[in-house]
Write a structure and sequence with these properties.
Layout (H helix, E strand, L loop, with lengths): L7 E6 L3 H12 L3 E7 L3 H10 L7 E3 L2 H6 L5 E4 L6 H10 L3 E4 L7 H13 L4 E3 L7 H10 L8 E9 L4 H6 L12 H4 L1 H11 L7 E4 L4 E2 L5 E10 L4 E8 L5 E8 L2 E5 L10 E8 L15 E6 L4 H17 L8 H21 L5 E2 L1
Parallel strand pairs: 1-2, 1-4, 2-3, 4-5, 5-6, 7-11
Antiparallel strand pairs: 7-12, 8-10, 8-16, 9-10, 10-11, 12-13, 13-14, 14-15
Helix pairs in contact: 1-10, 4-5, 5-11, 9-11
Length: about 350
């Protein structure tokens, strides 16, 4: 194992369930190590350490401030409720800690701009916790979509992210609380759909965004389910997505081009950690008399040596190490991607809040 001088030392602000996954990813990544965890109470932090069999070398703190004040912490992972992101991400940046921030990144783009400005002015790396960007399969899908001979131009995209949690989720989970994560299913599941659609469009913002009236809220007005339509006027392209806490698990993306198309069913969380696939077709035609096709979908299998969350941590740590060694400056691409997703998220919420009117971006 590499020594501490070659590894990025992580602190985690909060003991949310997703933090368990990141603890594992930090340990699996070859260029990072978990240095500290924290909660609002020392007892909760200790229980988290025991539950996840963390080594005694990991510092256990009873406040988030203690992690930020630890001089050995290089970077922090922030899985706190969205309403707390602005405060703690900005404090982390001001303490010169690099910021890996859970999605959705902020309550609105103005808050995210303040976070990104703090990261830029303090010379620290920013990245949000959308893990699928870092899977090798994503690169292979992009190669196909970018091949104008095989795929052509994007014409339409469909995405869905949904799941049906147990009844206690709707009573206790922060994603159903207006004062903690006011976007609800839109911010949790919809963030992925928005990211996938923008990714397929090379991050070109849509001309218009419109949420459909078939939107479901809980008793406090938090979105439990919604469907959204996008239009790119110049590109003559469209997209729709569905996100929900009220439907069976889906993690679909379909991208249709003028010459080809591809589909993936498990893009957020692959069916398997060590391998993932997607289906593509190019130049497909109906057979004579329309009794079949001239080809079947091609299955592209991509094998990977690390889980996608470990790839994310490895890439984030590579950037942090380069900045620490004065070899590179922070990569602003990741902040730009998050910001565009936040702009679209805000537009969808505006459409919902204003009677499902069309919003121009």
């Amino acid at each position: 194992m590499a020594n501490d001088k070659t590894q990025v030392r992580f602190g985690i602000l909060g003991c949310a369930e997703i933090a368990r996954k990141l603890c594992r990813a930090i340990n699996l990544s070859p260029n990072s190590t978990l240095h500290a965890i924290s909660s609002r109470s020392i007892e909760k932090a200790k229980q988290f350490a025991i539950k996840n069999t963390l080594p005694e070398s990991v510092k256990v703190y009873g406040s988030y401030e203690d992690v930020l004040d630890d001089p050995f912490v290089d970077a922090v992972y922030v899985p706190l409720p969205t309403s707390l992101h602005l405060k703690w991400a900005m404090l982390a940046a001001e303490k010169k800690k690099h910021v890996l921030l859970e999605k959705p990144t902020a309550l609105n783009v103005e808050e995210l701009d303040r976070i990104l400005d703090a990261c830029r002015s303090n010379g620290v790396q920013f990245m949000d916790g959308s893990m699928w960007y870092h899977h090798p399969r994503t690169e292979k899908m992009k190669e196909f979509v970018s091949d104008t001979n095989l795929f052509g131009r994007v014409k339409t995209i469909y995405s869905s992210s949904s799941y049906l949690p147990p009844p206690q989720f709707f009573e206790n989970n922060i994603r159903t609380k207006a004062d903690l994560d006011s976007f609800g299913a839109l911010g949790d599941a919809g963030w992925y759909c928005i990211g996938a659609i923008l990714w397929a469009m090379n991050y070109k913002l849509p001309t218009t965004v419109k949420a459909l009236p078939a939107t479901t809220f809980n008793s406090t007005g938090v979105i439990m389910s919604t469907t959204v339509a996008f239009h790119w006027e110049q590109e003559e392209a469209t997209a729709t997505f569905y996100c929900s806490f009220l439907s069976h698990e889906t993690m679909d993306v379909s991208v249709l081009g003028s010459k080809g198309s591809f589909h993936v069913e498990d893009w957020i969380i692959p069916y398997e950690e060590s391998s993932a696939s997607f289906n593509l077709t190019s130049a497909a035609r109906f057979a004579e008399l329309h009794i079949g096709w001239n080809m079947k979908e091609q299955v592209v299998q991509v094998h990977n040596e690390l889980p996608q969350e470990a790839f994310m941590v490895r890439e984030f740590s590579r950037l942090v190490k380069g900045i620490k060694d004065c070899e590179i400056r922070p990569d602003t691409m990741w902040g730009d991607i998050s910001r565009k997703s936040q702009v679209v998220l805000d537009a969808v919420k505006s459409s919902v809040d204003n009677g499902f009117k069309m919003v121009y971006i």
